[in-house]
Design a protein that fits this description.
homodimer; alpha/beta; 5-stranded parallel β-sheet; 5-stranded mixed β-sheet; 8 helices; about 30% helix
Chain lengths: ~240, ~240
């Protein structure tokens, strides 16, 4: 039997108008769609009557396994992530699993890039990412917390703009407070901090605060936190990191 | 006279299929398009007969000034950047210039995010960005070279995946060599390095090398260089940074 192709697709922030035509085509032409349930619900109009492998969060390995089985049964499969599939999305895991198969059993695959959450959040805040930046996930589920803290410290020492993915969840509420304390050792307490929740979705929300105060704002697992560098300023409700023209 | 709106638009990597519908609509509905000539030539089919403010590189301030003048003459203007306008693009400069005007003379503005070069390059290489990463421009035109080197050092010390924008130009050829030497102090000489040139364009080219050898490859101002972290591996021509499921 011919093995079907797997396309790993970034949906963008979560509305059709910010999904690339290439991503949309990949989904429309796939026979099977695999992805976290919440993301599948974001795009009902293009998923139509397709077969869905929709699992809850934290079942990534099972989902990829099912996607590979579908491809080996001859189906074309789109594995979807919100944002960009290559940034804390499904690309790494599924490629890793595909390449571990015997060569004759490997499906062909392609990654289709998307507008990532960090780009979407930055656009909503103004232009906070205009200079060198570091992207760090505060989820310590699969990464040692000491390493995450070290990265925060290195990024702060280098005066990077810092984007925090997975800043807080129901069970994980103190990591962001520890990170704030590390950052306060390197950055001015008045450094602008932007929080964008549900970027690009109907319930999008943005707040601009300071390094000293931002942890008083509502932050959840759909939030992205952007911390300015030493030059970042706030004006008229926008956050801008100048590049010095 | 009513002031026209300015939309700051990221085109994505440079082909229509990776431009979001929102970006396309912003360009199609604008009366005037402002952008670096090379980017305007990437999308002739949607620019049609519009008025173009196309300047050469390094004339960013003049281009933004002309865009603002057009908006103050009542025109709607799209200011375009390749990739994402918020990452080393035009968003920061033009917002900065708009917010310096007296409030009554400020055009309304909006940033439309795009697929950035780093996302596009990562998708072509496989999944190199699956863990925390730092984005650094090696252009020392507007940033002190000592600060850039310090950032490279901090990113290496934190075992970040590192994405280098503007790695090399005709006049600037030694920066990348100095960066390589810094990285070799922290990272294994066999660390995978991916180079993607003209990502998403017809003359796209990818090479996967090592930290020890990558500077022997052709690198130019349209290249993006991605340096792995300590876990990144290469298999079957793809570069993957695992996340540890």
């Amino acid at each position: 039997m011919k093995i079907g192709k797997i396309t790993i697709v970034g949906l963008g922030p979560g509305n059709i108008s910010e999904m690339t035509p290439k991503a949309r085509l990949a989904i429309e032409t796939a026979e099977v769609i695999a992805g976290y349930n919440i993301y599948i619900k974001l795009i009902p109009e293009i998923i139509g009557g397709k077969k869905i492998i929709g699992t809850a969060m934290m079942q990534e390995v099972a989902r990829c396994q099912m996607a590979i089985e579908e491809s080996r049964a001859g189906k074309s499969v789109a594995v979807i992530s919100s944002g960009d599939a290559g940034i804390y999305g499904m690309a790494g895991l599924i490629i890793d699993m595909i390449l571990k198969l015997p060569e004759s059993e490997q499906p062909k695959f392609e990654v289709v890039a998307g507008v990532s959450a960090v780009n979407a959040a930055a656009a909503i805040l103004g232009a906070p990412l205009m200079h060198d930046f570091a992207v760090i996930s505060l989820s310590d589920l699969m990464t040692d917390w000491e390493l995450i803290k070290k990265r925060v410290e290195c990024a702060a020492a280098g005066d990077f703009v810092i984007a925090l993915y997975n800043p807080k969840s129901k069970k994980r509420v103190t990591n962001i407070l520890e990170v704030q304390q590390i950052l306060l050792r390197y950055k001015n307490k008045n450094t602008p901090v932007g929080i964008v929740t549900n970027a690009g979705r109907i319930d999008e929300r943005k707040v601009i605060s300071t390094l000293e105060n931002f942890t008083n704002e509502e932050i959840n697992m759909f939030s992205l936190v952007l911390i300015g560098n030493s030059q970042t300023y706030v004006k008229a409700g926008f956050m801008i990191t100048p590049r010095g023209y």
